[in-house]
């Protein structure tokens, strides 16, 4: 986990500032799951600006061609970051949501399995892609997104998320698979 610090008495440590504004919803979607809800970060204009700026500052000098966001909360942040970096945006959707020819990847979740899809023409060989989601739990969703982009010839430069849940092993799995990761904050326990 990377902490971003800025010199501001009002914000202090940006990682803590943002983490403190994430809502925890116990027992959702299943008993025992502590859901980390990022919507409070999105509702407040100041907090949303700080969040977006963290990602924009990290990637503004990177050589990127596209930002890919994972359904659904990864769309929100990913699209804004793509716009701010003057890049195109690629949605990675849940199965059956894209209208054109798709490529699919099934993966395991903390509490089940799912399939994500990408348009067959979403990126071209050699495109350098930033892959964004809101949270890394078991790592399955981000790994599936990476596989889809690479199957189309894209190069996933880094995976990025607001929240890491390290106890669930996803960030370790992704790093062990060779994917560089950037997360803003982490939560112990799930």
Describe what this molecule looks like in 3D.
It is an enzyme of class 2 (transferase). Belongs to the purine/pyrimidine phosphoribosyltransferase family. Pathway: Purine metabolism; AMP biosynthesis via salvage pathway; AMP from adenine: step 1/1. This is Adenine phosphoribosyltransferase. Homodimer. With 190 residues, this protein is α/β, with parallel strands linked by helices. It has a domain at 62-186: Rossmann fold. The protein has helices at residues 14-19, 39-43, 45-59, 73-84, 140-151, 170-176, and strands spanning 23-26, 34-37, 66-70, 88-94, 102-109, 112-119, 128-136, 155-164, 181-186. The protein has a seven-stranded mixed beta sheet with strand order 5-6-4-3-7-8-9, sandwiched between helices. Helix 3 (45-59) packs across helix 4. The longest helix is centred in the first third of the chain and has 15 residues, at 45-59. It is globular. The model is unreliable at 1-11 (pLDDT under 50).
How would you describe this structure in keywords?
Rossmann fold; 30% helix; 7-stranded mixed beta sheet; two-stranded antiparallel sheet; alpha/beta; disordered N terminus; cytoplasm; 190 residues; 6 helices
Query: Which CATH class of the domain at 62-186?
Result: Alpha Beta
In terms of quaternary structure, what is this?
single chain
Average pLDDT, all residues: 92
Q: What form results from the Cα inertia axes?
A: globular
Strand-residue proportion: 25-35%
In percent, how helical is the residue content?
25-40%
Helix and strand sequence = HEEHHEHEEEEHEHE
How many whole angstroms does the radius of gyration measure? 16 Å
Catalytic activity: AMP + diphosphate = 5-phospho-alpha-D-ribose 1-diphosphate + adenine
GO molecular function, one term: glycosyltransferase activity
Subcellular location: Cytoplasm
Enzyme class: transferase
């Amino acid at each position: 986990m990377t902490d971003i610090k800025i010199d501001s008495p009002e914000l202090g440590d940006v990682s803590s500032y943002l983490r403190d504004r994430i809502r925890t919803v116990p027992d959702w979607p299943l008993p025992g799951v502590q859901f980390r809800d990022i919507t409070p970060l999105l509702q407040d204009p100041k907090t949303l600006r700080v969040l977006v700026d963290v990602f924009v500052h990290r990637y503004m000098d990177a050589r990127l061609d596209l930002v890919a966001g994972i359904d659904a909360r990864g769309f929100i942040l990913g699209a804004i970051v793509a716009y701010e970096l003057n890049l195109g945006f690629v949605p990675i959707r849940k199965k059956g949501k894209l209208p054109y020819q798709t490529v699919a990847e099934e993966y395991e979740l903390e509490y089940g399995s799912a399939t994500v899809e990408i348009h067959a023409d979403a990126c071209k060989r050699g495109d350098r892609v930033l892959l964004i989601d809101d949270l890394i739990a078991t790592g399955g969703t981000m790994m599936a997104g990476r596989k889809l982009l690479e199957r189309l010839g894209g190069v996933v430069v880094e995976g990025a998320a607001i929240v890491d849940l390290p106890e669930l092993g996803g960030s370790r799995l992704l790093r062990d698979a060779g994917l560089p990761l950037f997360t803003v904050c982490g939560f112990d326990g799930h």
